[in-house]
Amino acid sequence: MGKAILTIIIFLTHLKGVGQVASPDSSCSQNIMLAQEEYAKGIYKFCTSAEWDLPFSRMFPILDSLCKVNKLEFTPYPYVEHDYGFDSYICYSRFMDSVLSKKYGSNFKANLIKKADEIFKARYIKDTIPYYYCDKQIEYIKGSENLDNAFFKGLVFADSCQSITNYNSNFVCNISFIVDTKGRAFKFEIIDSEGSTNTCVKSAKKNLLQSAKKFKYWKPAILGNKSVACHANFFIDLGRRHVIAE
Q1: What is residue 230's predicted lDDT score, i.e. its pLDDT?
Q2: 206-238: per-residue pLDDT in tens?
Q3: What is the DSSP string of the chain?
Q4: Whole-angstrom Cα distance, residue 163 to residue 62?
Q5: What is the pTM of this model?
Q6: Fewer CB within 10 Å, N or C, the chain?
C-alpha cells in the first residue's frame, strides 16, 4: 500500500512538469540571456518598439542604412523575441536598448528615428506615395461622416442582383485613385483581384466605379507640414452601403 502511494506521488510530481509553460519571468530571462550572448559576440541590434506600425514602416529602409553606418543590425519587427509561452516581447529589446544607450547616449535611438523620418520626408515630398505613408490622409471635403450618403446617392441595382446588394452579401470592392497636392483626384481603377464574369458583379463594379469618379476634389494628404500627392483607395462594402476613403 505504501509503495503504491509513493508511486502515485512520484507519477503526479512528474506529470505536473509535463507540458508546463514557463513563467513570464522565466520567459523574459531566456530572451535576455539570448541578447547577452549576442552582445558578448559584439552584436548590437536596433530593435523597434512593439507598438510600431504604419506610417512608421515608411522609414525602415532608411533606418536600416543608418544602422549599418553605426555597425548595428536593424530589426524592424519582433523577430528577435522568442516565444516561450508568454508574450515576452521587449525583454530582448530592452536589453539591447540599454546597451545602445550606454554606447551611443540615451537619446541615440530617438534621434536616429527622427533623422530617418526627416530623410524620408525630404526624399519623397515631391513623389506620389501610398496613403498609409502619409502623416495625414486625404479627407472628403464635405466631411467623412457624409461620405456614405454622397457615394451611394442615386445608385440603383437590379432586383435580380440582390444576392450581392443585400445587407448580408459581403460583397466588397476596392477602387484606387490618385489625389495630387491640390486635392484633385484622377486615375480611378478597380483593383479587385477576382475577375468575375458574373453579370451582377460586373454591373455593380461598373456602377461603383462611376460613383467613385464623381469625387474629383479632396483635402490633400499631408507629409510633414506640406501637401503631398498620394495613392488613395475607396474600400466599399456594398451590402452595408458603407465606404472608407484612405
Answers
A1: 98
A2: 999 999 999 999 999 999 999 999 999 999 999
A3: -HHHHHHHHHHHHHHHHTTPPPPHHHHHHHHHHHHHHHHHTT--EEEPPTT--TTGGGGHHHHHHHHHHTT-EEE-SGGGS--SSS--TTHHHHHHHHHHHHHH-TTHHHHHHHHHHHHHHHHHTTSEEEGGGSSB--EETT-GGGHHHHHHTT----GGGHHHHSTT---EEEEEEEE-TTSBEEEEEE--S-----HHHHHHHHHHHHHHTT--BEEPEEETTEEEEEEEEEEEETTTTEEEE-
A4: 48
A5: 0.77
A6: N
Residues ≥6 apart with Cβ < 8 Å to 47 = 75, 78, 80, 92, 93, 96, 97
Of 96, 115, 6, 114, which is closest to residue 44 (Cα–Cα)? 96
pLDDT digit string, tens, across residues 70-96: 999 888 655 555 554 444 457 888 888
Q: Which residue has the cell 505536473?
A: 16
- pLDDT at 131 > cutoff 80: yes
Domains of the chain, residue spans = 22-124, 128-245
How many whole angstroms separate alpha carbon 225 and alpha carbon 246?
18
Say how many Å lie between the first and final Cα of the chain, rounded. 74
Kindly tell me the burial class for residue 168, based on how many C-beta atoms sit within 10 Å of its own C-beta (0-12, 13-18, 19 or more). exposed
Cβ neighbours of residue 158 closer than 8 Å, sequence gap 6 or more: 200, 203
Closest by CA to 151, choosing from 210, 219, 232, 239, is 210
